[in-house]
Amino acid sequence: MDYESIDTIIPTLGKAGISTPIQRWEKNSHSRNFVSDTARVLIDVSLTSVTKTFKEEKEPPSFEIAGPREKIYFDPSKLRCALVTCGGLCPGLNGIIRSIVLELYYGYGVRNIYGIQYGLQGFIPKYGHDIVDIKPEAVANIIKKGGSFLGSSRGPQDVGEIVDCLERMNIGALFMIGGDGTLMAATKIADAITERGLKISVVGIPKTIDNDIHLVSRSFGFDTAVEVATNAIRAAHNEAQGYPNGIGLIKLMGRHSGFIASTAALAQQDVNFVLIPEVEFDLEGPGGFLDTLEKRLKLRGHAVIVVAEGAGQKLFEARGEEYDASGNVKLNDIGLFLKDAAISYFEEKNIKISLKYIDPSYIIRSLPANANDHVFCSFLGRDAVHAAMAGKTKLLIGHWNNHFVHIPMTASAGKRKQVDPHGKLWSSVLDSTGQGSLKNG
Amino acid sequence: MDYESIDTIIPTLGKAGISTPIQRWEKNSHSRNFVSDTARVLIDVSLTSVTKTFKEEKEPPSFEIAGPREKIYFDPSKLRCALVTCGGLCPGLNGIIRSIVLELYYGYGVRNIYGIQYGLQGFIPKYGHDIVDIKPEAVANIIKKGGSFLGSSRGPQDVGEIVDCLERMNIGALFMIGGDGTLMAATKIADAITERGLKISVVGIPKTIDNDIHLVSRSFGFDTAVEVATNAIRAAHNEAQGYPNGIGLIKLMGRHSGFIASTAALAQQDVNFVLIPEVEFDLEGPGGFLDTLEKRLKLRGHAVIVVAEGAGQKLFEARGEEYDASGNVKLNDIGLFLKDAAISYFEEKNIKISLKYIDPSYIIRSLPANANDHVFCSFLGRDAVHAAMAGKTKLLIGHWNNHFVHIPMTASAGKRKQVDPHGKLWSSVLDSTGQGSLKNG
Amino acid sequence: MDYESIDTIIPTLGKAGISTPIQRWEKNSHSRNFVSDTARVLIDVSLTSVTKTFKEEKEPPSFEIAGPREKIYFDPSKLRCALVTCGGLCPGLNGIIRSIVLELYYGYGVRNIYGIQYGLQGFIPKYGHDIVDIKPEAVANIIKKGGSFLGSSRGPQDVGEIVDCLERMNIGALFMIGGDGTLMAATKIADAITERGLKISVVGIPKTIDNDIHLVSRSFGFDTAVEVATNAIRAAHNEAQGYPNGIGLIKLMGRHSGFIASTAALAQQDVNFVLIPEVEFDLEGPGGFLDTLEKRLKLRGHAVIVVAEGAGQKLFEARGEEYDASGNVKLNDIGLFLKDAAISYFEEKNIKISLKYIDPSYIIRSLPANANDHVFCSFLGRDAVHAAMAGKTKLLIGHWNNHFVHIPMTASAGKRKQVDPHGKLWSSVLDSTGQGSLKNG
Amino acid sequence: MDYESIDTIIPTLGKAGISTPIQRWEKNSHSRNFVSDTARVLIDVSLTSVTKTFKEEKEPPSFEIAGPREKIYFDPSKLRCALVTCGGLCPGLNGIIRSIVLELYYGYGVRNIYGIQYGLQGFIPKYGHDIVDIKPEAVANIIKKGGSFLGSSRGPQDVGEIVDCLERMNIGALFMIGGDGTLMAATKIADAITERGLKISVVGIPKTIDNDIHLVSRSFGFDTAVEVATNAIRAAHNEAQGYPNGIGLIKLMGRHSGFIASTAALAQQDVNFVLIPEVEFDLEGPGGFLDTLEKRLKLRGHAVIVVAEGAGQKLFEARGEEYDASGNVKLNDIGLFLKDAAISYFEEKNIKISLKYIDPSYIIRSLPANANDHVFCSFLGRDAVHAAMAGKTKLLIGHWNNHFVHIPMTASAGKRKQVDPHGKLWSSVLDSTGQGSLKNG
């Protein structure tokens, strides 16, 4: 991957000239180390690439390390902050909300913290959602619960109206937790803020249960999702073994990437086929999916299939016209498509199968975070606060090479991480499933 | 309920004249108490009814208590036994298999125990499923796993061929674990055995995750099913609360009875509507389901609905013709029907909702039994063995008034237990949900 | 068991002359059935005993069935109620609190509900614990959490001071959730109330995680306790198998009864020795525990032992003097005693063992109730309210032959349910463990 | 930290001259990428340090990246491999065993794989433990179970006898999974092998549930341990809140490091005091632990304390002589020590407390790995096989900067990773608990 062209400069609202309040820290004998803006972590850690870069007398690309700064930009006693969660539910949302609120309140002494309800809708007057004044007590116990304490909604809203709302409320720091679309909106909001000459820090925490954010090695909620997905695989395995020619077919999340499908398959080790967006397969013909499935049934009498929701989209192009009458939704649902395709295939061959289809997505994404994700979320939230207090803006809090880092929104937006078909993860999946290429010829 | 006409006499193959081997028991200082055939437990425990019966100088109906008999019919050293599991998966199948095998082997010294694979298919030569010779080691650890160690299948098979197989294998005791259809088949098998003059004990262990077997106060797997169903309800609640006008709709098992839906709703207490087969509701019109749902959304902004798969079947009669083109499967799926109905209803009213539909059935039924169900299954299996060894036949092992009992197959077959719309369970559901009658007018 | 002498008459405060408010119920088409005071369930359900009783022209003993009465004693708009939880934590306490509060508030319209904090201490001024005014919102979500919303404490308090407090607060109904000692106190409180001519209903909900309350077939929290105890057994089993001569020793709750130990052993099936208070065993000598343990290690290389905390108390009498120097606490701890005894025994024999001791009690009892226990608690709480509203007093809410019933405190107090050494449960444990009598000779 | 002096060269047995068999891989369209020995990942990823190193014209320290090599040293058809697990149980042992066996068998075609039972004892004839011939079927399902499939034992054995055994069995590759002591033994074994001129690859997989291995950013089982430890904290919290002046005291694993204690405290967020080996505290005096605990009780009425088993060891030095009579074991148990200290302290002050002590260690370490740890273990096992097949020896498989790497045993042995008292983890713990310095003055 070409890391050299990555933008790694974090915009700021101005000079951070106020000393960070340390009343909480100074009572600890081990005084807290502040992080300097010059502390940076290499993006590419390959010895070869780094050596090459230095040989060319260039500086290797690096990210600013996140954490508390010695000087801050905002006066905590005056600052008003807002939080919003957008898009689909994801384990860990409440942990991040809690962490941001507690760090603002106890770490810096900020007293005006507002929750924008139901995603971007919450900024827009016509929806009539109340703004919530958040106190620490209100969020102390929300991590035991899944979902979002603030609610969420999908879809874009007018950027001008959003900034109007921020201006009206006199917000100084806005924390936006959301996926692709939200971060795109965050970029536009930050630009509009600059245009209006306002001083509002916009800090994003990237949310995607699919773990496919560019330049973010891990996104919160992913670990929980994998853990819970294994239950569905176990169920599918028992159903498959339970009947002659039993097939368990599980659709897992992953519109553009197969990280959940691949990782869950490795975690459970009972899976015979993993289908992901990054790796094409043929449905029919010798060596194709159905043919290989038939061989597997002959050999072992049952099969477990995990399909990421974005896998096999080319199949819809090929067969598009057949499905027009049934409406768009069904057209693109690879899980139901494969279910129907397998049933037809074996019916034509007069082979009795027993196929069980499982779609656990809502059960997974609405759960509370597991321990690992919760710890991760608590760091993300704190670092988001440190970044905003320092007057940094238009950035994401990410995790890279074992450090929490600042990533300029422009560096990550519009790109996506995917499973490398030649990499360690997918190779391990192939080893574990023995599924082969699933291609003709 | 009229209990008086219930058949409570257990058929036997002949005189139990062999002393029960007690090598295992005698080494325990607390020697095992045998159960006498005259030990019976009242079916109806109402003081009023029992008094009335005695006043009329009749004997109140009662069940024989299950357990080891002092004399047995079969010579353990010669006996050959067979086990089969039929129909849908249910938590606890492996626990029962294990318990039967260990009791036969260690309790009585039976050495020839055969597993019939894949349900009734396993008896029929044309399917070509192997018979498994089961040793204790093979089943020692199967309770950690869901599904059925022996596999299963649905649908009837020819009774003659089944009995042919039993005769060919020289089976003396057949243990059948299955639902309605299986117990009906068991009855016919037992009759055919009698007709041929064979001496084969047929003992059934009723399986229905729905807990709706007549004269059986609790069926195995039900407790596990309720426990796991609460996870789906929790997910639906988080999804519902997460969005403006959020609706979580969960379809749970229950073709003819609402026990799982009602009990899970009480266990989780986050449910606003429970729809079950036993209680009719109106879909449309004032006071109907959709109207009440709209009112709930106006009041609280979200709603959680649990629907048993057999609820609202009359809706299909009324609307039957509209759905003919789409095929039979969809016609009867109340979950998808309600989903579509709610979406249309609010679309017409121009109210934006966010509905999430969850169908966790396969995840639930394929799990291992929880502790409670496992203990229950271990008793069911042992008592099935005791009954068969004593030469009893054409009976079920049931649980009634805190005792394990023998129920003649003829007493239970073809009838069904249902939620009493005036009883304690449904009243508690109405109290907990506050849903009202959901009827017009 | 002799049931005939059981007191089954429930005292009342006076005539229930007020119609039960049914505003909540009447909006349901299926109007709620009230339960009549004459509806009773037989205590003994054996056909033989009941027949004998009738032959002798006596009425068989029976319990009043719990549930809502058509007429109530208290005027809900005037009634002030108090709740208190006492003794050790137990899964389900919060479910009962919630159920009582919601039934009082929504079912009857009672608006003054007070929580007494930290058990009986909460009545006594010198401790200074606040009384809590409980509204439904405060308890809506407490079932997700273990422990007690009201806190608890151990030990008795002055009955006079308690009744002073009730009188001062003008309480009409007192709900006491607690074990042996609490129910004994409840009896005395009820008597003092009568002496003072007050009209206060005292309703007890028996709490014992050990499930050993006389005349109560099941106590709340027990099922959760068994389920969680199996995790500890699984851990002990893995530790035992993990090392040469590995021994896993788990101490489970059960001061006077071995229900948890026995049931958990059946649920997990990995246990080789179960020691309970009801069944004596010899520690040393041929056939004794240590000798049998040694044989088991020789045969299989590992062993799992479950000991109820009240087992083997006679061992302390015999060896009492040896242990005096070490203090009282250690003297009575059978878990640590057996650990030391086994270590010494094998050391003397020069056999290397690896013994792991696990005491999971606090982890078990402080958990939230599982689904099964929660449903059970919600019924207990509601029925406690129905009983109090009807003016009944000095009673417990119990569960008997599948019905919730009213048990006079005098019938249950001071007696205890125990595992029958000749019964089905213990026989199954012996079959499952193969431990034998563990007695010399 | 000074990374420059780290030894990063992996010893080899000789030239890897055999082409890696790729029968399994070539059927996949996406052929597997081999990893070159020149692929290395930087150890230090700080931009400043790396720049400085290059300015000094030195090469920055780096680790070899793990993975399959194009050429291997051993002929799979002749190779005989051995596996051994040593020391305490840890979640994931079975996952690593399974992964090594399956990769050897299916990935390379190795057919002779031997399990050494019960740790290093298994090599020594006098213990008489059998060697197990492991086939894939034997390990296919072991990941559902905790513990070690091969058993384990503690303590050193004679290195000469171990190498005798390897020589006798004609082993070419030895996989050792264990902690500190085991890796020290592995180094000596590798040295003895070299001295004897044998060609045996020794590959270590570092095991420490405490996550404190030098140069290994994460050790398997740690994530599972943290997850399960949160249950104990939740229990302690409920117990603490349940009583007046309730204290929940949990001892967690961590002889030399506080990673589990710190991370679990962040995951659960109900903890008020975390005590770890890396940070000293005063027990008595103003500002000390007991004084601060008293203040906390006054303020909030309850407290939750997590103590790592290696914390506060200096307290034993000070008080050593008082405890001599009671034996060594008790002397060093900080959990029981703090329990006793707190009880005495409050007794003297005449303050009634209710302290519950929880030690969940055995329950934690004997569990199966969670999904995250299992995926991790499956990579560790595969990479261990790749390293051995390539003829590399005296190395560990580690994880560093998101890559699996080869670490020379000499680089890691005898050093330890610890929680940095000025770093992000401990700062977050201090923020979360608000415990302060716990030091006098």
From TrEMBL, chains A, B, C, D:
It catalyses: beta-D-fructose 6-phosphate + diphosphate = beta-D-fructose 1,6-bisphosphate + phosphate + H(+); beta-D-fructose 6-phosphate + ATP = beta-D-fructose 1,6-bisphosphate + ADP + H(+). ATP binds at G88, R154, G155, G179, D180, G181, T182. It is found in: Cytoplasm. Its EC number is 2.7.1.11. Pathway: Carbohydrate degradation; glycolysis; D-glyceraldehyde 3-phosphate and glycerone phosphate from D-glucose: step 3/4. Signal peptide: none annotated. Keywords: ATP-binding, Cytoplasm, Glycolysis, Kinase, Magnesium, Metal-binding, Nucleotide-binding, Transferase. GO terms for biological process: fructose 6-phosphate metabolic process. Residues 81-387 form the Phosphofructokinase domain. The keyword Cytoplasm applies. The record marks G181 as: Important for substrate specificity. Belongs to the phosphofructokinase type A (PFKA) family. PPi-dependent PFK group II subfamily. Atypical ATP-dependent clade 'X' sub-subfamily. Catalyzes the phosphorylation of D-fructose 6-phosphate to fructose 1,6-bisphosphate by ATP, the first committing step of glycolysis. Homodimer. This is ATP-dependent 6-phosphofructokinase. It comes from Desulfonema magnum.
